Amino acid sequence: MAATPSPDASLNSSAQGKATRIALFTFRTPQMRAFHMTWMAFFICFFAWFACAPLMPMLRGEFGLTPDQVANINIAAVAVTILVRLIIGPLCDRYGPRKAYTGLLVLGAIPVLGVAMAQTYEAFLFFRLLIGAIGASFVITQYHTSVMFAPNVVGTANAASAGWGNAGGGAAQGLMPLLLAGVLMLGVSETMGWRVALLVPGVAMLLMAALYWRFTQDCPQGNYAELRAQGIAIDGGKKGGWASFVAASANYRVWLLFVTYGACFGVEIFIHNVAAMYFVDKFELSLKAAGLAAASFGLLALFARALGGWASDKVARTHGLSARTTLLFVLMLGEGLGLLWFSQSNSVALAVIAMLAFGLFTHMACGATYALVPFIDRKALGGVSGIIGAGGNVGAVAAGLLMKSLGSLQQTLMVLGVLVVLSALCAVAVRFSAEHKAREQALLESALAS
């Protein structure tokens, strides 16, 4: 889309056209178009990523899967995302988020459609592995909002766009069983029904790719390729590619947040993959009831992740940059304790209440983590976003391997609760120099004064 100046000057910061407020009900500005298109694209990506999870009790019987094979499928669903997230961040710096997101949506639709045609466990596992690449959409979502919004609201913008997107995982838990039921009512057999249901998210991804290409641009000034051709410097002097990755990987704060994000988003992904089966196996719920219970966890992201980002912006405005790390510590502590409670719940009602309690802290911690990301290294934003984002999937894979080794989901949840409490210490270990804080404060004051 051609670069056009924003028609609403009050939305832009004086420096680089970054929005200083979120005008939620407008689509007129490039900043808000990016905001709305990112959360919609991310919603569809997450829906497609976790579309198989609520159907696993049925698919387990369809393919005659053993517990070990189910664990392999859950690990495969998140494993390849680690690599793709590491790559996609620097690619955003190099080619821009518009091209990166459109390409990911188109290529990611292929394995989503492929899994609906799988005839064997091996084919199912292969396509499930490739579907994991869709999880890299998160990095592009956070990157795009980071370059579009000013320091005073970037945490809220990042968390809100990701939160509404993450809700796609919760929506998949509740809607896929209903979609399957609707297909079966048309007289389609169960063997064919789940395949037809899984075609829907793949087609939705292709439609979203066309919309993203049509309605977004890379940054407030336009698209990276056009700006570079005109000799205009990209925000923060970003070069992209390998240089972005190297600069980010040399920053110790990145690896501390890598751990914290593994402990919050990794747990979130793990719960998305196992919640429906947990409620079916432990409490003997029906597939539809288990799906709705699991959906309540994911749908918390509609507001909880945004709440974490908003709270981070709020405390930073009054207490400075370091307050963001303190808030993250508190949220992760609450998550770990809540997870321990959930692991010991022995009734459906108590288990759902405990899941919602620790889920609130989990989603808020995810939002608070990425409210910190734009302030780590502005010149290597793509690398920072990619590495920390990959940490979430490392956490999910580690949780899957832990479950596979322990052989008990309840024990796995208990151990994860302890590990989350310990990882909260990484949040308070993130420190910023006086010069760094002064520079960020100056950017904040500039945005607020505009």
TrEMBL record:
Residues 34-435 form the Major facilitator superfamily (MFS) profile domain. One of its GO terms (molecular function) is nitrate transmembrane transporter activity. It comes from Cupriavidus cauae. It is a multi-pass membrane protein. InterPro entries: MFS (IPR011701), MFS_dom (IPR020846), MFS_trans_sf (IPR036259), NO3_transporter (IPR044772). PROSITE patterns: MFS. This is MFS transporter. It holds the Pfam family MFS_1. Belongs to the major facilitator superfamily. Nitrate/nitrite porter (TC 2.A.1.8) family. CDD domains: MFS_NRT2_like. The chain crosses the membrane at residues 37-59, 71-88, 100-118, 124-143, 192-213, 254-279, 285-304, 325-342, 348-373, 380-403, 409-430. The keyword Transmembrane applies. One of its GO terms (biological process) is nitrate assimilation. Keywords: Membrane, Nitrate assimilation, Transmembrane, Transmembrane helix. It is found in: Membrane. GO terms for cellular component: membrane.
